[in-house]
Design brief:
The protein has helices spanning 3-28, 35-113, 121-143, 156-167, 184-203, 236-242, 244-255, and strands at 172-175, 210-216, 221-227, 259-265, 268-275. It is an alpha+beta fold. The chain has a 5-stranded mixed beta sheet with strand order 1-2-3-5-4. Strand 4 and strand 5 form a beta hairpin. Pfam families: HATPase_c, HisKA_3. Keywords: ATP-binding, Coiled coil, Kinase, Membrane, Nucleotide-binding, Phosphoprotein, Transferase, Transmembrane, Transmembrane helix, Two-component regulatory system.
Length: 280
């Protein structure tokens, strides 16, 4: 039943029922029911109709109104995401791309002139390319429509699975954490850290086996991403410090009061995010 039909039903049904009662009373029951009793029965009938039929109609009307409000909110959010993606593309992304082109030209000129590595253009170019990749990934995420009917209702597990589909990466997942253990901000930051860990496992360390584990409760939990890629070299601290994405991930974790550790052991590379210490 549509919103308009429900409104008309609420307006018409009481009038029709009261009109039918008055017609029957005056035509057939006038000899059996006194005027005073009839006048008493009329509001009783109206009350019974209100708490039965009209109550259900009002519940239906409220449900339809909530669905309309949710649809409007989803549409407004999608419009805002599209606008933000357009602004990122037209501004930051194009500027970063132009900057990376100029750095490449400057590096070629420097190599031709034999100036050596005084300006460290190679490191600067890597940083710009990393930032450019992150901005374009953000644009892609903003343009990607969220689950239409479950916006705001998707579980953390479902969002991680959706993230895997977006990144086109196969992950063995063992997820025992509950959504109630995280605030909305914690979920956003944790998803961003997991995305970066999976992205690094896919692009920087072409791994054939990636595992994601999550365990614990709201007070004490850990999330571990492991892969069988080549991992880091002997100077792991320098390598981690020079990677822009890992730096951002560490800053996110520290801002939330979490601890994060990154390392390689026994042919496996691991990113571990913890809250409240080590799980036993």
């Amino acid at each position: 039943m549509s919103y308009r039909q429900i409104k008309w039903m609420i307006l018409i049904v009481p009038s029709i029922i009261v009109g039918l009662w008055e017609f029957v009373r005056h035509q057939f029951l006038v000899s059996y029911i006194s005027m005073g009793l009839g006048n008493f029965i009329t509001p009783v009938i109206l009350f019974v109709v209100s708490i039965t039929l009209l109550y259900r109609l009002f519940a239906m009307l409220e449900r339809v109104q909530n669905e309309l409000n949710e649809e409007r909110a989803q549409k407004a959010q999608l419009v805002a995401r599209e606008q933000l993606a357009r602004e990122l593309h037209d501004g930051i992304a194009q500027s970063l791309f132009l900057l990376s082109v100029k750095i490449d030209k400057a590096e070629r000129r420097q190599n031709q002139a034999g100036a050596g590595g005084e300006l460290k253009l190679d490191e600067l170019r890597k940083t710009v390319h990393e930032v450019n990749r992150y901005v374009r990934q953000s644009i892609s995420n903003l343009k990607y429509p969220p689950a239409a009917s479950n916006l705001g209702q998707m579980t953390l597990r479902h969002r991680i699975i959706q993230m895997m589909d977006e990144l086109q990466v196969h992950v063995q997942m063992d997820w025992a954490l509950k959504d109630a253990d995280f605030t909305a901000k914690e979920q956003v930051e944790l998803l961003a850290c997991i995305r970066e860990a999976l992205l690094n496992a896919k692009k920087h360390a072409p791994a054939s086996q990636i595992t994601l584990q999550g365990e614990g409760d709201s007070q004490c939990w850990r999330v571990r991403v492991t892969d069988n890629g080549p991992g880091f070299g002997a100077n792991i601290h320098t390598e981690v410090r020079d990677k822009y994405g890992l730096k951002i991930m560490r800053e996110r974790a520290e801002e939330m009061g979490w601890t994060i550790s990154i390392g390689s052991e026994k042919g496996m590379t691991m990113v571990l995010i913890e809250k409240g210490g080590t799980q036993h």
